[in-house]
Design goal:
The protein has helices at about 10-35, 60-70, 150-175; strands at about 50-55, 75-80, 85-100, 110-125, 130-140. By secondary structure, it is α/β, with parallel strands linked by helices. Helix 2 crosses helix 3 (about 150-175).
């Protein structure tokens, strides 16, 4: 058996350590120099310090996901429009499910779930912060008539993941407006 944790000694070991640190420092400098920022590190526009979310379904899961995303980025969500410094309008939220393939007996083999949201953001003075935009995502999955319960569960999971991804994309666009 060989020793896994050997200590570096002498000039050769010191040069390897110095070279490793120099490489790491150079890599970090290159990453920060190109404008890279870790995902989620962007700040909301200052006008969105307190945001009211306007939606046709004010108690729906999309509003909950936007609220969580705004709070995760340091924003505050209010239920009173008069307290808000910005209004996030969820103009539409469309979820579609369509058949992608069938077998020779006409039974469904594969579905596609697509979700499309339209949103905009304006200040409390009705000045546009983010013009109305549309984001759409789709995910397909296999349907098994023998496992209907698990397929229904998979459909719920797919919808939840699609919606969170759409909210993340919308938040990236909103934070880009701050720059």
């Amino acid at each position: 058996m060989y020793a896994i944790n050997r200590r570096r000694t002498g000039i050769h070991g010191a040069l390897q350590t110095l070279l490793a640190w120099a490489l790491l420092l150079g890599l970090l400098s290159a990453i920060t120099g190109c404008g890279f920022h870790p995902r989620g590190s962007s700040a909301l526009p200052s006008e969105m310090a307190v945001t009211f979310i306007k939606s046709e379904q004010p108690y729906g899961s999309l509003v909950d996901d936007f609220s969580a995303a705004l709070q995760a980025q340091g924003g505050q969500v209010t239920t009173l429009r008069s307290e808000a410094t910005a209004i996030l309008h969820i103009v539409s939220n469309i979820i579609e499910k369509r058949v992608l393939s069938v077998d020779t007996d006409g039974k469904v083999l594969e579905f596609e779930t697509r979700q499309t949201i339209r949103f905009s953001v304006e200040t409390s003075e009705k000045l546009p912060l983010v013009e109305e935009q549309e984001i759409s995502m789709a995910k397909d999955y296999i349907f098994s008539s023998a496992e209907v319960l698990s397929t229904e569960r998979e459909d719920r999971v797919v919808r939840k993941v699609l919606q969170r991804n759409l909210v993340n994309l919308a938040m990236l666009r909103i934070t880009a407006a701050a720059q």
